[in-house]
Amino acid sequence: MDIQEPKVGVYICHCGQNIAPKVDVEKVVDFAAGLPHVTVARHYKFMCSDPGQDHIIKDVNESGVNRVVVASCSPRMHERTFRNACAKAGLNPYFFQMANIREGSSWVTEDTAWATLKARDLVAAAVARVAGHRALTTRRIGVNKSVLVIGGGIAGMQAALTAAEAGFKVSLVERDTSIGGHMAKFDKTFPTLDCAACIGTPKMVEVSQNPNIKLYTHSLVKDISGFMGNYKVTILKKPRYVLDGECTGCGECAKVCPVSVTSDWDEGLSQRKAIYRKFPQAVPGTFCIDKLDRAPCTMACPAGVNIQGYVQLISQGKSDEALRIIRERLPLPGVLGRVCPHPCEDKCRRNEVDSAVAIRAIKRFAADSASAIPFPLPKVDRKEKVAIIGSGPAGLAAACFLRQQGFGTTIFESSKHLGGMLRTGIPDYRLPPEVLDREIGFILDLGVEVRTEVCFGEDMTLDSLRAEGFSAVFLAIGAQAGAGLALEGEGCKGIIDAVQFLKDVNLGQKVELGERVAVIGGGNVAIDAARVAMRLGAKDVTIIYRRTVEEMPAYKEEIQAAIDEGIKISYLTQPVKLMNGDGCVAGIDCVKTCLGEPDASGRRRPEPVQGSEHVIQTDTIITAVGQRVEAPWADKEPELVWTRRGTIEVDNDTLQTSIPWVFSAGDVATGPATVVEAVGGARRAAEAIKRFIENPDHPLLEKKTAGVSPEGNWKPFSKHLEPEARALAQHITPESAVQGFAEVEKVFDPETARQEAGRCLNCGICSECMECVRVCERAAIDHSMQAEEVQEEVGAIILATGFKTYDPTPLGQYGYGRFPEVYTSLQFERLNNATGPTSGNILTKDGRVPGRVAIIHCVGSRDKKHKAYCSRVCCMYSMKFAHLVREKTGAEVFEYYIDIRSPGKNYEEFYNRVQEEGVHFIRGRVAEITDIPDNPKDQGRLTVVAENSLNRQILRTPVDMVILSTGLTPADGTHELSRMVGVSTDRDGWFNELHAKLAPVSSASTGIYLAGCCQGPKDIPDTVAQASAAAGEALALLSKGWVSTLAETSRVDPDLCAGCMMCVQVCPYSAIEFNHEKRVAEVNDALCQGCGSCSAACPSGAAGVDHFLDRQVFAEIRALLSG
Amino acid sequence: MEQTTQQTDLVKTEQTDFDKEFHPNIVALVCNWCTYTAADLAGVTRLKYPAEIRMIRLMCTGMIDPRFIVESFLRGADGVFIGGCHPGDCHYINGNLKARLRIGGLKALLQGMGIEPQRLALHWIGASEGTEFQKQVKDFVEGIRELGPSGFGVYDSI
User: Fold this and answer.
1) Nearest CA to CA, how far is A283 from chain B (Å)?
2) B135 in contact with A at a CB cutoff of 8 Å?
3) What pTM does this model have?
4) I need a surface site. Which of A408, A580, A638, A958 has the fewest CB within 10 A?
5) B156 within a domain of the structure (yes/no)
6) Nearest residue on chain B to A101, judged by CA atoms?
7) What ipTM was estimated for this complex?
8) For B78, phi and psi rounded to 5 degrees?
9) pLDDT digits (tens, 9 = 90+) for A978-1023
């Protein structure tokens, strides 16, 4: 047909009086008759009528017309009619073109001559275009007979039920933990005052029990691809952490959960637990745990202790449980509760409000106050044994972790007592030996074997341990030797190494000190040595440090305690030479320094100040300038690789050394570091050792823990949070402290500990304290649950995502958020609900029954500064509120309205009823709500200021409670969904329907339908009606079983295609694929929507959209401009 | 040429002021979903606007090949008016944004060829904005009238 000589029939429609008088149709016909290819030109009164169409059919059949142009109304009106007429005549319907001379000319042009001229040009263009038309065909594609409903409110439930009842499979996706939507929050519905729960919950149950409905709650639609009839949907199921089907909804978990958060279900009017169910009738009834990222404190802990967990348990007074949590990662809680440098507290978000929670002190409280509970014994006893060399924190922790796994563990210790540096390096006033003994005792009680006074390298070697049957060795010998000063005069009498000094004192050996003691160094060891020297009776103790207090590595509280105890610190002072007196120390030659550029450690390098040389007189010098590893046996184990820093080289994650069966952690592997780092290292090493023993050939690392986003997803907190002072542990006075070695810091009393723990912001919401797991008899709780992606294939999609209410905070004059007695409408719904915070009693926040209540209409609605539209439901629900307030409290109610909008069955009657009930209706927008009373007797009340616009009277009404009738806005995420499904939104964000009058539940994309408030504000009856209608539209599509492909799709001419792939990039539907074999682009006509992006982008003219081919458009342009 | 004579005759016999002022040739390329619908709405609402504008319906502004515009000018158009959906409202997700990119580039090119950039306009006119369509067309036609003939219609002089 394409190559046939075009014979065009032109038909000019009068459209009754709509075209004919304005456009001189006869002149147009005469003109058309003279155009190239035109064989027939006629005019007729109504071309769309049957006789009109018959002209076309007759001319095609009898006069050989093979192209048709009808000049009439818009093609959006009757293009289909005339295409069908062509088809009826046996002509391909795409050999038709319409000239819009009604909307395009007669209706919009003043002048008759101009209207005629324009009509002529439009006809000429259509004739020129139609000559180049091609015959096009469509093809049928089967549809997937299932429906996706997004949103589980009343609209989504109704749509799902309608489709399911008709026998179609439905996937209902709801992002909340329960279906039910807003309606489930209401107590009564207008105008009938039906109980919302009574009519809503049966629907919810019906949805959950319908075998055709697959319910996805707590889930999101992540991606939609495909086309009408054949969509592929990716659903993200967020983890509930509670097993559906196992949970019986008994609620025991919530009773023991220590974490309370503001309830969004109760609109912030109540608190709920981290494990929760929105409301008793929730569907599904399964509980859910609100879990965000691990709290920053836990993330910061080198040992990975679940800090939020034990802090929460302490806030509940559960010391034993708290200790259990600490011990999972930290076998020495009493020790760490005293000496930990608490990096966790630096990361505590409470710092942003006031100051960090006193985490270390809380841990100490837990350790000190918990009853003497032993570690749980290993469940199995394994035959493999691990040798642990060294009994410092790393050795003890590794022994504990490995023994708990069931391994035989033997600690080898060179000295007489266990504890390593904990015993010899930390003075008793910071860590009493009883605490250490007690905690070591708990570890040994697990069945850890101990051999003391055996020295690695002398009494045993790796070979001998292997021979003894050990499967792995854990080297944790620490860094026990003091580093030297390398100064002139070192080695003379009166100069003591701090590490040795502390060890001697701790082990009860006699140490001789002069009256004046100088300690060189700025670390914790220096402070410890100074404070111990003070306690040993030194009269004058000076710490000499070459930088300022800012750079000092010692902990700030330790420095302060030292100063309190009378120790002097000489900052910016560098020793140059140790002076000898009569065979013993007489003083130190020092020089003042100033700070220069930062050095390799990041600290500013001290530089000597010329001419500042001076002498510090002293009798004893204690050097505390660092520690180093001492391993005289190193030569005997040549396979063990050491770093240049003199530490054992280990893998960062597994802590394996160069000898596969030897692992190492603690100071010997890291260099001098903290106790908590040693314990953390021991934990990782223990896990690696376990894997090594179980299967030495497998990688020792299961997987790296996922990196945390720099901005952790943590619970937000209000900027207006009340500051609460951080609890400080009591200390004994410095005067009595220096008298002996009694512990300086006291433990919290239980009340202080609880209060301090209560300051925790619960950053991660769920604290993973595992109390819920403990009490759940069905073992339904699984804290390790992960998000899951599910694929569904559906033929139609119903959007039912609903609304949210307008946040009235920007309307500052109404005082929402400032005055406690100003409520939003949803808050009032909860206040009035039997399952709400007050069990349905309408009470003020301080528990009074309100005497006067103001209800303000149109908050956020019908206001150009906010939302210009009417939210439709506010008048009616406001009057419902008025009725309920009158009924429940007898209070006087004032309704401030602009206009009352009560169109709907029995709505106006309800308005009349409420008026008759004595509610005051005041026509006028409220100007302001103030807490400054006009009359002193109204102190504590709110005054509503408004003008009654019916009598121009300014009213100042004191009330006890104000309800803001907030408008409706699209639900969060509507915009993102709109992009995903390709359904546009209007300027207010509501989904656009296909036609305001004739297709209110269809979208412009066939296969996607709209139900309920996502299309615009509406009440429950309209929502339900629309939902059923949307389901009906979807079923109409699916029942037919097939859809037509578009005829107007793209194609790429393989002969012209240069293979540049521009079209592949611009196609918004991924409908173009590149054929790598043929090096050309190919269009999938099932996916192509005919937008023509490819056609415009193609540089070689290979891509084109059928029916909008370049030559067709060019013909139209040329004809229009040749007139 | 024959047609042009016909046209003049037609209008002359209707006693209009056809010859008194400059009547520009204006081509409008509009998308089916937004601006064409707005134009229909203008028609249904009987909003009057200058008759000099001749509209071509396309499915999306994203299918406008820059050659359509150049061809229009070469064929004697004094102005080209393009109307599409507001950003975010495109029926085909983002065709209008592609059009914006192309037309932005083309404007610079046209200027180099001696065509004032004001002769090419791109407007976002939503389906419900009949009055907006009327206003934009009026303003555009008036603007072109003030600019005078483009003189670029090379085919006319051949």
Assistant:
1) 36
2) no
3) 0.79
4) A638
5) no
6) B43
7) 0.91
8) -95, -15
9) 878 878 788 799 998 988 888 999 997 889 999 999 999 999 999 9
